[in-house]
Amino acid sequence: MFNKLTLSSLVAALSLTTVAACQAEATTFDFNHQQHVTAGVLNVGYVDIGPKNGQPVILLHGWPYDAHSFAAVAPELARQGYRVIVPDLRGFGTTRFISADTPRNGQPSALAKDVVDLMDKLNIKQAVLAGYDWGARTADIVAALWPERVKALVSVSGYLISSQQIGEKPLPPKAEQQWWYQFYFATPRGAAGYAQNTHDFAKLIWQQASPGWKFSDATFAISAKSLENPDHVAVTLSNYRWRQGLEKGEAKYNVYEQKLATLPAISVPTITIEGDENGAPHPDPKAYATKFTGKYQHLTFTGHIGHNPPQEAPQEFAKAVVDADALAR
């Protein structure tokens, strides 16, 4: 028979085992077991891992990628005690518009308001925001318009806030050539072509944006499923057409766009990142450094790193998030 001491030791051991198992489960990125919540105009699909009382970190993906970009970053941050939230942006994955009457609007301030609405719904007063491509632009806008909601910022390619007026200005031919798909999307042929060839189109963008990233077909296929969202094509076309001034956007976002048109400074602690082999259009880091008026660092990831650093260099990206959080302390 067990004596009381033996029994107490066994119970304690089992309790520790249970806690460890729960912690392990809580730090596993399982995209097939998303949570869903109604926030603003969306029903948002998102992964939420790590201790619920940890410092919130919201990771924002780009186009034409998805939340799987953070499949290695999110668990690493969760293991370090962060609560990590990775949502599907509007038009991606399992996120859906609540009403059929809501415009499938892709203008940048709408995506930023989505993040604030999600934070409100999850009762998150302040978070570290980190993203790339559309996700970086979205995080930049939240930091500029709602700085009290952002503890620290990690932004790939730095300051990406712009306006329709700026978008009207022609660029040198070589720069314009990089934006070939933006002009393609402005045409009916482009709209039909993207709808018909979404996966092939996205793979081509991945290859051009990250020429040194030798991703497998299996890796691409996992993310490509998120592009089958019924609103993906409409949101994508809207985003790029809005930038060219071909769409007005929604009036309820006008107040945000007016502020963004002044190219406001970002005052929250920030780390910007650039890959040493980014094949997508991106500004020179020297051109935007002064737009960050708080504590600031810039990092260049080396080793043929392209446009998607969280997936191409996950350990380095996770460290940048931790370091940005430290800047705010």
Automatic annotation (TrEMBL):
Signal: present as a keyword of the record? yes
Q: Where is the signal peptide?
A: 1-20
One GO molecular-function annotation for this sequence?
A: monoacylglycerol lipase activity
Tree of life domain? Bacteria
Provide the AB hydrolase-1 domain boundaries. Answer: 56-197
Which UniProt key words apply to this protein?
Answer: Hydrolase, Signal
SUPFAM superfamilies from the UniProt entry: alpha/beta-Hydrolases
**One GO CC annotation:** membrane
* InterPro entries registered for this protein in UniProt: AB_hydrolase_1, AB_hydrolase_fold, AB_hydrolase_sf, Epox_hydrolase-like
Task: Name a biological process GO annotation.
Answer: acylglycerol catabolic process
PROSITE patterns from the UniProt entry: PROKAR_LIPOPROTEIN
Q: Tell me yes or no: is Hydrolase among this UniProt entry's keywords.
A: yes
Q: What is this protein called?
A: Alpha/beta hydrolase
